[in-house]
Amino acid sequence: MWGPLMSSRSNRDGSVAAMGPQNFSTITELVLVGFSDHPQTEIPLFLFFSLVYLANCLGNTAVIMLVALDSSLQTPMYFFLCHLAFLNGFFSTVVTPKMLFNFLASRKVISYPFCLAQTYLTLFLESTECFLLAVMAIDRYVAICYPLRYLLIMSWVVCIALAVAVWVTGFCASVIPLYVVILPLCGPYIVDYLFCELPILLHMFCADTSLQEAIMAIGGAGTVLFPFLLIVLSYLRILVAVIRIDSVEGRKKAFSTCASHLAVVTIYYGTGLIRYLRPKSLYSAEGDKLISVFYAVIGPALNPFIYSLRNKEVQSAMRRVIERYKKGTRITF
Fold this sequence. Notes:
The chain has 11 helices and 4 strands. With 333 residues, the chain is mainly α. Strands 1-4-2-3 form a 4-stranded mixed β-sheet. 37% of the residues are buried.
C-alpha cells in the first residue's frame, strides 16, 4: 500500500545495509536476508508456506471456477469476489515462489529486474485491492439499502465498468507515479526482508527523497484513505438500514451478507495499521517480516475460506457442481 511511503528514509530498523556505493549500471542482483539468521527455521517455514501457498492457489481458483460453473453464484457480489480471488492468487504468486526458493538456496538473491517487477506489481495489486474492497462495500450497501432495485442498479454493465475502473485506477495510482518518482540506486544492497517492496527501494535511492516521499504521501491518501472512507461510510449506512429492520431474523440475514467482506477488510487494513502505525519502539526487522508474510501469503489464502466456510450459498453451489460432475462421470463410464 501507499502507507509505507509516508515513512522517512532513515534506516530505522536496520532493514537495508549498503555494501558500498557502486555505479547504477552494474546492479545485477540484491541479497534478500529473509530468515537466514535463523537457519534452523528455514526448512519448517518452507514446508509451512508451501502448504499455505498451495491452499491459496487451490482456494482462489476454486472460487473462480465455482462462480463460473454455478449460475446461482453469478451475481454482482460473486463477480467482484472472483476479481478478489484472482488478485489474491496473483499477489501471492508474485511473492511466494521466490521466497520459497530462497528458503532452500545457499545464495539468497533476487535479480535486479525481478526485484523491480516485484516492486511494481505488489504496489499495483495492493492499490487495486483497496479500490476493489471499496467497490465490494458499495455493492453490499446497495444490496441491503435498496434490495428491490439491487439488480437494476448493479447491472452487469455497471459491474463490468466498476471492475475495469478498479484495475485501471489501481494501475494509474501506483505504477505510473512510481515510474515517475523512481531514482537510480547506489548499487547492490543486502536487504533484511523477504521480497522487494517500495519501502525497500526507497532506502536504496542515492539522492534525497523528500520530494518523492511527499508525492507518495499524497498518493497514499488517494489509494488507501479514500477507499477506506468509502468502506466506512457504506457500512455506516448499512448499520442504519439494519437497525430499522423490525425482525431479528432480517437483521441477522442482513449482517450475514456483510460478515465475510468485513472480515477480509479487517484483516487487510488491520495488518496495514499494525505495520505502519505502531510505535517506533516496537519496530523490528523480524516483526516486519512476519507481518509482510501474513498479508502477502497467509491473508490471501484465508479469503476464500472466509467467504465459503459459513456461506450456505457457496456450500450449496459446491454440492451441486460436485453432483453434476459425478453424474457426468457415471454417464461417461
